[in-house]
Structures are given as C-alpha cells and as structure tokens.
Amino acid sequence: MYGKVTIIKALVIPQMVYLFSLIPTPEGVITELNRILYNFFGKGTDKVTRLSTINDYEKGGLKMIDLECMSKSLRLAWLKSIFSLNSGTWKSYLRCHLQAKYGGLFLFKCNFDVKDFSIRSQFYTELLKWWSDFLRIK
After folding, report:
1. Which backbone phi and psi does 62 adopt, to 5 degrees?
2. Nearest to 124 by CA among 98, 106, 85
3. Which of 9, 55, 123, 127 could, after both became Cys, cross-link 59 (CB 3.0–4.6 A)?
4. What pTM did the predictor assign?
5. Residue 118 contacts residue 104 (beta carbons within 8 Å)
6. CB environment 2-36: b (16+ within 10 A), e (fewer)
7. In this predicted structure, which of 35-39, 79-83, 87-91 has the lowest mean pLDDT?
8. Which residues neighbour 128 within 8 Å (Cβ) at sequence distance 6 or greater?
9. Over pLDDT 90: what percentage of the chain?
C-alpha cells in the first residue's frame, strides 16, 4: 500500500496540481479521479477506508493526498496574489467586476452566496464558491 501511495504522489498528483491550479475543475472530475485512484489501491473495492488513507502515519494512515482539499487549496492560493498590491491584467478583471457590482475586495470579508453573482469566468466563480465555503467552516 505504501508503494502505491508513493507512485500516486510521484506520478499522478504533480500532473493534477498543474491542472487544478490553472483550469476550472468540473464537479465530477475529482469524484472520478478518486474512484480511479482507490480502485488502484484495492482492485475494485475499498479495502481501506478513504479517511484512513489520508491520515498521518501516526494515526494509522498512509498520508495519501485528499484530491478535493488539494484542488480547493490550489485555487484559494490565488487569493494571495489577488490581494497583493502589484498590478496585473488577470487581477484587473476580477477586481473591476467585483468593484462595479459587489463592493470590491471587501466582499471577501463577508458571508455571501455565489448563486447571487453573475461572473462569466468559471475559474473565478469556483474561487469565490470555495472561499465562501471556507468562511462557513471557519
């Protein structure tokens, strides 16, 4: 099992990191990837619970990557750049759109529902949705 986790971390996850950080992730993609990866572990059935594979070694886990958390954290990492003072064309789109309709970057300090927004970019819509989910968990 440890060898399979190492293979996944070395060969599969780096390719997913690149994709998850740059392009929108359709809802079923992570579910399907998890299904494929856990089939690789158990050849069709989950012999080990998914939570136990994600846990640290000290807790009896295998330190497997949680794909859903990874994809969300990669997208949320873009917020650091959005809040930075240096300018960039890619930031201008979101800042301008939020300023014109929703009060600018102050929105990130508020409790909001993404369904109330009309942003054409699926990338930014996902970013706002996951930020909203993060605020609810906190």
Report:
1. -115, 5
2. 98
3. 55
4. 0.67
5. no
6. eeebeebeeebbeebeeebeeeebeeeebeebeee
7. 87-91
8. 112, 114, 117, 119
9. 0
